[in-house]
């Protein structure tokens, strides 16, 4: 039993020390809806049959790792496109729980090279042009499944 606890502690300590750096903000349902309203975005599918939930510190570490892994997979599978660098984005996490009690995290990312822009989720929904500055994914945190990555097409 002591071996198992020591191994578990070591894994947690290792994952904390090698955590991926991600610029993110966790949004409540109300704040996400408010930001979508500001952008006059009417698709509310992410809220259908979902409950609001929270994320622990450990879940945030795992989520950041899964996001990084998802982006790396995207970069490998799309060599014709410019690689996405996770450090160049601000991410908005909307944690939800479905009727099976699984945590699904809706993630919207905005490139952060213009500091005065892209500080709110509403900016994501005001896009009317192409470019890879806007990416989104959904990650099943309960099953630790990588998310698909969707970007705007080229302008």
UniProtKB/TrEMBL annotation:
Keywords: Signal. It comes from the Bacteria. Residues 1-19 form the signal peptide. This is Lipoprotein.
